[in-house]
Every structure is written in C-alpha cells, then in structure tokens.
Amino acid sequence: MKAWFGSWLLPLLALLGACASQGAAAADKPYPARSVRLVLPFPAGGPSDLAARGFARSLERLTGQPVIVDNRPGGNGVIAARQVAAAAPDGHTLLWATSSTQAQLRLQAGAAAPAFVPVGSIGKFAFGMFVSPAQEANTVADFVAQARAHPGRLNVATSTLSEYKAAAQFMQASGIRMVRVPYKGAAQALPDLMQDRVQVNFLPLAAGLQYVRAGKLKLLATLQAKRGDSLPDTPTMAESGYGGLTPPGWQFLLAPPNTPRTLASRIAALAGQALQEPELRGQYAKQLLEVDSGGPDALAELMKNETAAWEQFFRDYDIRPDSN
After folding, report:
1. Model-level pTM?
2. Which CATH class is domain 2-124+248-317?
3. Cβ atoms within 10 A of the Cβ of 212, count?
4. Which of 10, 61, 131, 269 gets the highest tally of CB atoms within 10 A of its CB?
5. What is the mean pLDDT of residues 179-190?
C-alpha cells in the first residue's frame, strides 16, 4: 500500500494546493472556454466508451467547444484518476467515472483517495449473464448444473469490479466454483467469450446484445428488476432463482479536487441539457442505459450509498486492492 501511495498519490498533494487558487478564479469565467477532456478509465470500444463518446458529441453541439474522450485504461482506474486529480480545477478536465472506478479507488486508497468533486450522474447500465455459444446451457439452471458437474473447470471473465461483484454473488448463491479471468475492458473479454476461452461474463447488456443477435453469444438472463420491453422473452436472474445480484452500472462525471461547487453545478446543468438531445437519448435507449441526470448533491448522496455498499462487499468477499 505504501508503494502505491508513493507512486502517485503523495506527489499530488503538492499540486492540489496550487490547483485550489486556480479553481476559485475558474468559477467566474465563461464555461467552457476551450476544449473539454473526458478521461475514461477503460479502453475504446466498450459500453462506457461508447456512452462517453455519444455524450461528448452532444455536449460539443450544445457548447460549440470540442469534447475529447481520452481513454486511460490500466491500474484498475488509477491511471485515469491520476490524470484528473492532477488537472486544473477549471472544469476542462473531467473523469467519466463508473461505480467500479470509484470503488476501486476507495479499495486501494481508502480515505486518502482523491477528493473528486461530484458533478452529475449520466445514467445506469443494465447487466446480463452472457455465455459462450459453445456452451450447451440455454438457461441459468442448465449452466449451474454444468458447473456443478465440473467444479472449477469453467472460467468467468471480469473486466470491472461490478462484473466481479455479480460473478461472486452468483457463485455464492448457486454454490458453484469458477475460475475468474480478469480483463482491462469488455472489448478485450468479449473475443475470448465468443471463442469459449472463457465461458461466462456478467456485463452490461449494451456490450453483448449485438453478438447475441448475430448468434455469437447466448444471453441466459438479465439482472434487471423485471423483464424489459426490449427483451420480453429473456428471464431475469430473479426469475431464474438467483435474485439479489446487484452490479451497479452507474456512469457519472467527477471534477478534479478543489473545483468550485458553483462551477460543478454549471457543468451539471450543461450535462443535463446534453442528455436531453434526441440523438443521444436514442443511442442510450439502444444501449439500455437508463438516463438519470442528477446534479452534484444527488450524485454526492449516490456515491455515499454506493461506497457503503462496496465496502460491505469488500468485507464479505475479502476483496483485495489488486482486484478488478
């Protein structure tokens, strides 16, 4: 843990003092005054990346300023967080965070994690249980029976803590054992899933549905509270006998430490307008991303509740800082 602090967290403390004075001045200037950089802790091509790029285009049209998505995968979100934590608190560098990004930072640094300023939520992805088409299982019950017949022989892919959480909860609820194979992002995990090098993944529906429709994956169940209109014939995990799986798929915006609250509110208002654009709403509907454009106060409360839930999960499953 000490090595992790020395690698990037401690040098930031000197920067944060200088950034505070910059933030006070930024609150009174027009926004955005130049291009905005959205730093994303995942590789290109995954559901969060596609959602961020759609949002960036909408925000560009609204403000007339370029909005650049900067993919910074690796380090379980630390690399992206480092970039944003060291940026000037003027709103022109933002972190496109997910529930698992925030959880990973909390897991690794605890109370010493950078004090990012909540800006606003984007929405929440629905998740599903996807399996390789080579698997004979066509239902969750089939899959559980297969896993019980071959304990420890099946592989489960995870590319975020949210996917890990769903997989761990499923294994505990079903009593099966699988080998976890970590990936940097869904775009890296999906080819192995389609080729049966891993057999199952709990990931956002948006990441896998196109492959299900092409016959390259099977969707056994969704982790939605009830059957959705877009997938009326697909059962939920609860209907399949495994309720209580709760992978949080929240996507939200965070600003560097010391960003003025008034500026965060201005950015949130612009984000809310961008999220109302019909083209973006249509994209998110196809991605099964439920839009929720809460502002800084609502996001702060959401993050508080999410942090408590994640910390309970870490304790229950003995999750370590190098997990993903």
Report:
1. 0.84
2. alpha beta
3. 17
4. 131
5. 91
